[in-house]
Each structure stands twice: as C-alpha cells, then as structure tokens.
C-alpha cells in the first residue's frame, strides 16, 4: 500500500498532536454544556474516534451518512441523506465532525438539514480544509489543517474506497489514477 503513496502531507505524529489540541479546545468551549457530537460516515470515522477521546467532558455521539449524486453531478449540489440520526438534537449543542471540507457541498447540506431541527447551537469541526476548491460559502468552526488542492488519502479519506486505514495523510502516485 505504502508504495502507492507519492508523498506524506501530514504525519501520524502531527495528526495526534493536532487532534489533542482540538480536543482540548472543544473541551474548554463546551464545558458544562449538553454536547452531541455527530460523525459523518465513512470518512470521518478515524478522526471521530480519536477526537471524542480527547474531549474530556460528558458527551453523546451519533452518526449520519450522506452521498452526493455521482462525481459529475457534484456541482449541482445534490446531496442525499443515507442514514439519519437516532438522537434528537433538541436541547443539545451539536458539533458535526468531518474529515474534510472540499467543495463544501456536503457540509452545507448537513448544516441546513440540522439547523431546521433547531439545536441549541451548531458548529463544525473538520480535520482538513481545502479552501481552494470551495463552491459554497461554508467555514468550519474548528479546523485541523489547511491543505493544498491535492487529493488526500488516509486516516479515513479514500480513493475508490481504499487507503482509509493509513495512519497518516498522503497523496497517491499518478499511476494509481491511470488504472
Ligand atoms: O466538501 P465536499 O466536496 O462535499 O467533500 C467532502 C466530503 O466528501 C467526502 O465524503 P464522501 O461523500 O466521498 O464519502 P465518504 O465519507 O464515505 O468517503 C468527505 O468525507 C466529506 O464528507
Ligand atoms: O481530497 C480528498 N480525498 C478524499 N476524499 C475527498 N472528498 C473530498 N475531497 C477529498
Ligand atoms: Mg465523507
């Protein structure tokens, strides 16, 4: 697997350190509040699992899954809900946990969808932000790393459903896309 990686963008050590920092920041900001963290399948799973254990206050967690209609249609902004919450957001401070904000279409959909349910507050934490690709106006409230306009894999991020289990974030060699 590693021989298909052209370069490492973020090492395992950098990820650990930044996730701990984000956890501490979130701990301080939500102290004494009823927090519901929402992980977004499938990409956010490794980040989500590490982050929640760095948040040192009682919390609840739940998951949502969405899908965009085919890559060619992405710019249409059509996002479909595949799995909804099992928990009510009423009387909760909600924190969406994502792996990456790219075009922003996924988070725009999620934010609008969740705001309609009137949580006490709604914020977004993402591990990666790729601002050069943004198509809609959406900003994460907490961000791990800003990355350049390159396709990232690892630590949850996939190419063709592979590479999610890498312990670091990397970029694939061009030959991988040629097959
Ligand atoms: O800002 P955007 O352009 O919308 O891209 C970001 C989204 O795309 C990826 O998920 P994807 O829909 O590929 O599914 P996955 O999480 O299951 O990999 C990623 O995990 C984000 O959820
Ligand atoms: O850079 C990326 N890598 C993997 N999945 C993604 N989904 C949006 N951007 C990316
Ligand atoms: Mg995703």
TrEMBL record:
Cofactor(s) recorded in Swiss-Prot or TrEMBL: Mg(2+)
Leader sequence residues: none
CDD domains in alphabetical order: PRTases_typeI (cd06223)
Reaction(s) catalysed by this chain's protein: GMP + diphosphate = guanine + 5-phospho-alpha-D-ribose 1-diphosphate; IMP + diphosphate = hypoxanthine + 5-phospho-alpha-D-ribose 1-diphosphate
EC top class named in words: transferase
Subcellular location: Cytoplasm
Pathway: Purine metabolism; GMP biosynthesis via salvage pathway; GMP from guanine: step 1/1; Purine metabolism; IMP biosynthesis via salvage pathway; IMP from hypoxanthine: step 1/1
UniProt keyword terms in alphabetical order: Cytoplasm, Glycosyltransferase, Magnesium, Metal-binding, Nucleotide-binding, Purine salvage, Transferase
E.C. no: 2.4.2.8
Role of this protein: Purine salvage pathway enzyme that catalyzes the transfer of the ribosyl-5-phosphate group from 5-phospho-alpha-D-ribose 1-diphosphate (PRPP) to the N9 position of the 6-oxopurines hypoxanthine and guanine to form the corresponding ribonucleotides IMP (inosine 5'-monophosphate) and GMP (guanosine 5'-monophosphate), with the release of PPi.
Similarity comment: family membership: Belongs to the purine/pyrimidine phosphoribosyltransferase family.
Protein known as: Hypoxanthine phosphoribosyltransferase
Organism, as annotated: Dehalobacter restrictus (strain DSM 9455 / PER-K23)
């Amino acid at each position: 697997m590693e021989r298909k990686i052209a370069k490492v963008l973020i090492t395992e050590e950098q990820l650990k350190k930044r996730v701990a920092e984000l956890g501490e920041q979130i701990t301080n900001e939500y102290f004494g509040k009823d927090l519901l963290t929402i992980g977004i399948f499938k990409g956010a799973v490794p980040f989500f699992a590490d982050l929640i254990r760095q948040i040192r206050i009682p919390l609840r967690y739940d998951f949502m899954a969405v899908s965009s209609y085919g890559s060619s249609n992405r710019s249409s902004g059509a996002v479909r809900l595949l799995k909804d919450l099992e928990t009510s957001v009423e009387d909760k401070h909600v924190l969406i946990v994502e792996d990456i904000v790219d075009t922003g279409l996924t988070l725009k959909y999620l934010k609008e969808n969740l705001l309609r349910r009137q949580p006490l507050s709604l914020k977004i934490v993402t591990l990666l932000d790729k601002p050069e690709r943004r198509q809609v106006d959406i900003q994460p409230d907490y961000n791990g790393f800003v990355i350049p306009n390159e396709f990232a894999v690892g630590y949850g991020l996939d190419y063709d459903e592979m590479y999610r289990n890498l312990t670091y974030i990397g970029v694939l060699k061009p030959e991988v896309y040629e097959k």
